[in-house]
């Protein structure tokens, strides 16, 4: 593989292209300044304006959300796995029908394996622009987003309507629902009863791993974060590992499955038979199966990285029990 071919498989943080109208709450005050990024796969964006960096999926999707302080993503649910780690900033995650069932504050490097099938939301509670990286289960990311009814109702007052086809129509751009198209129906009371309301005490031990704990656990080998043998035992169609400076030797290795490298801290040197490059925080590199390569920090100081690999488990499924 030539350096040019490898570079085509790397999405650099500085090259990320945001969509500011990705979801139905894009004009709603408090949520109207957020940016959505689809890095690998089409993600769950509802906008035809969403830029997709790498369309080929390895059994999961990679995305990101960028938000200024006090900006939130509204309450929604997914049919499949959703995992976040905090790249920049300080974030509050909260969940439940009205967002009052539970919450916790995530610091930089923390990872959250959100329980499938609950309403969840998040907001930047830091002082600067923040970024969270997302892993979504399945090649089609579970088929989209399910919004809490009040989110859809509020959006109508600001010109956005979600069609039953899962696409947004913006009256501010002169758009309206196509003839014969109905708006996305609101969930009724019976449907809403099926969404769990776990408490903070139930969620955190099973679904959250803290950055500095992972740094300690990864001192001599990769820390298994999400997977059948992970700290957070789950089988969502992908495994997540955490690497720090002494986790792996800098000798070449190859895997028989897809590997996505996502640096958190420091600069990492990626070497293969065709060349070498440096991965920086916020970059995303898709390594194909069978490619022999080596990975090592390229400078002194703190270094950490999340590694995601596809599994044979049903895509997007979850074995987690609260």
Question: What does the model show?
Answer:
- There is one protein chain.
- The chain is 10% helix and 37% strand.
- The model has no long low-confidence stretch (mean pLDDT 94).
- It has 2 domains: 9-208, Jelly Rolls; 211-310, Jelly Rolls (Sandwich).
- The chain has 5 helices and 24 strands.
- It is mainly beta.
- The strands form 5 sheets. Strands 1-22-19-24-18-16-17 form a 7-stranded mixed β-sheet.
- The longest helix is centred in the middle third of the chain and has 8 residues, at 149-156.
- The protein has helices at 3-7, 149-156, 189-192, 200-207, 211-217, and strands at residues 10-11, 35-40, 52-54, 60-67, 72-78, 82-88, 91-95, 102-106, 111-114, 120-124, 130-137, 145-147, 160-162, 168-170, 208-209, 223-227, 232-233, 238-244, 259-265, 268-272, 275-279, 284-287, 293-297, 304-310.
- Strand 13 and strand 14 form a beta hairpin.
Shape: globular
Question: Which fold name corresponds to the CATH topology of the largest domain?
Answer: Jelly Rolls
Question: SS-based structural class?
Answer: mainly beta
How many beta-strand runs? 24
Number of helices: 5
Instruction: Give the count of structural domains.
Output: 2
Helix content: under 10%
CATH H level of the largest domain: which superfamily?
Jelly Rolls
Calculate Rg over CA atoms.
19 Å
Question: What order do the SSEs take from the amino end to the carboxyl end, as H and E?
Answer: HEEEEEEEEEEEEHEEHHEHEEEEEEEEE
Outline of this structure?
Helices cover 10% and strands 37% of the residues. With 322 residues, it is mainly beta.
